[in-house]
Design brief:
Largest sheet: 7 strands, parallel
Radius of gyration: 15 Å
Shape: globular
Number of strands: 7
Order of helices and strands: HEHEHEHEHEHEHE
Helix content: 40-55%
Structural class: alpha/beta
Distance between the termini: 33 Å
Strand content: 15-25%
Mean pLDDT: 87
Strand order of the largest sheet: 1-2-3-4-5-6-7
């Protein structure tokens, strides 16, 4: 359990999900945003993207599945750890979450809850990978989100709906 991250999110519940350079610039100017998820980039520019956000004194988590040029193998997590100043990763892949925890990175397991099988799989994944946070998508299902909150002992965030302007 990572109390520092939990306290930061509780005090600043809006988490920015940045999809492009324009969004990155807007996000860096928003003082109330303290945690940023990076949803774009490639192996050539991810370090610079992370550094730009870090200069704004924010916690940065890279959605490792969306970075062009990185594989879905655990070595991709090592790359993020060794070649960027990212604080953590986001992934749909339990093996990458597990490796990030081994490297003392913050972890967010992104879960698409599209049917009852996906919902039932959450409990299984929690016992194996133990992420710091679970992100539920789509985030427009309050009843499902409440059920997940009762099921797990880590913060749950909902994604896939908001736009920062």
């Amino acid at each position: 359990m990572n109390q520092k991250l939990y306290d930061l999110i509780e005090a600043n519940p809006v988490i920015a999900a940045v999809k492009d350079m324009e969004g990155l610039d807007v996000c860096c100017k928003q003082e109330e945003i303290k945690v940023v998820l990076i949803l774009f980039g490639d192996i050539c520019n991810i370090s610079a993207i992370v550094e730009q956000i870090k200069e704004s004194d924010k916690v940065v988590m890279v959605h490792i599945d969306l970075i062009t040029g990185l594989s879905s193998k655990e070595v991709a997590v090592d790359f993020i750890r060794n070649h960027t100043s990212a604080d953590g990763i986001v992934s749909t892949k339990p093996a990458l979450i597990k490796r990030a925890r081994e490297l003392s990175l913050y972890t967010t397991l992104r879960v698409f809850v599209l049917d009852s099988m996906a919902f039932e799989n959450i409990e299984k994944q929690m016992s194996v990978v133990r992420p710091d946070i679970i992100e539920i998508l789509p985030g427009l299902m309050p009843k499902v989100i409440c059920r997940v909150c009762r099921l797990v002992e880590v913060p749950v965030i909902a994604g896939g709906g908001g736009v920062l302007t």
